C-alpha cells in the first residue's frame, strides 16, 4: 500500500542541520520525513562520523543512510571564516537551525543565538547536548550511554544479579531527537500563531529565549522514567532491575517455547489474568482470591512464571500465540530483523520501504528501510531518499538557496576539497 499525499505538511519549512551522530540528526530526520527541506552541513573529508558506524561494506553505513534520509548534504568547513559566513548566509534563508555540539561551540565560531537572531529574526534554534546549555555540567561532553546512566534508565535494565545493561540501540539519542523535533514544532506553531493575531491583539514575535529549544540527553531519558522519582520521594521506594519483568506488575515477562522461540505475554490486567490462567490450564490460579490484584501477584511472581514457563515449553511459538489470541491475552513473538521483514502487519502499513542504495557490492541493491512514523493516512509516507553521499548537494544548495555564482561555488568547494 502506498500513501502518496499531494503535499507534505512541512513543505516550505527549511532547516539547517549542524550536527553529528544520532540525536540532532534524528530531529532533522523527523522534520525531513514530513516534508521540510533539511540541509545537513558536514565537515570536509569524513563528514558525519555516523557514516562509518557499523559500516560492514562500502563507504557509507546503513545507520547513516537511515538517520539522514530525506536530507541534503552540504560540505562546509566551519573552522574557516568562509565556511562560517556561508553557514550564516544559509541560516538567513532557514526557519530552523538544529545543532548538537558541546555548549559554547556555536558561540566560539561566531554563530551563537544572538548572531543567528540578528541575521534572521524569528529563527528557531534547537540545541541538543549531553547536559543542556546551563548548569554545572553544561560544558561536559557525553554520549547517550552516559545520559542513559544518569537519567536513571541503566539502573533498571538487566537482571538483578548482574551489572546494569543497555538496550541494543542508542535510545537516549533517539529520545532526545524526538524532543528536539517536538520542541521545534511547538516553537514554529507559536511563531506562526503570533504572526496571525486576532483583531484585538497586535502581532508579537516570541522572544529568542522561547525559540531556543534546549534538549539535554540525560533529561530526555529521565522524562521517560515514569514515577521513578515520585515513588522514591513519596514512599522511599528505590526500583531495582527485574530482568524481563516490570516491577509491581505480574505476570508480564518473556517465555521460551518448545521450539526454542520466545514470546512476550502481558497478562497483568485483573480480568485478563483469569482468562490467561484458564488458557494455560491453571483454573486454580485463576480462581485464587489471593491473586486478584497486581500487588499480590507480584509477590508470587516466581510461582506464576514457573507455571507459565511449563506451559509454553510444551508448545511451539505458534501454538502458544494462537491459544492466547483465542483467550484475548496480549502476547506477541520476540522478533528478529528477519521476522520483521516477513511480517504481514509491517507490510500492510508500508513500514519497510525498499530503496536502491550502494552497499559496496558494485551495483546498487534494493534495501529495506524503516517507514515513517506516525502515519498520516492508511500507510507510511514514502521515503523520498536515503541518507545522501557526502557533499552530494553542496553546489545545488549554494546555487538555489544563496544564488552563488560558479566562481563563488568553486571558491567554497575548493576550500573544502583542500581539507578532504
From TrEMBL:
A matching Pfam family: CoA_transf_3
InterPro entries: CoA-transferase_III_domain, CoA-Trfase_fam_III, CoA-Trfase_III_dom3_sf, CoA-Trfase_III_dom_1_sf
Entries under SUPFAM superfamilies matching the protein: CoA-transferase family III (CaiB/BaiF)
GO molecular function, one term: transferase activity
UniProt entry keywords in alphabetical sequence: Transferase
Protein name: CaiB/BaiF CoA transferase family protein
Native species: Nocardiopsis mangrovi
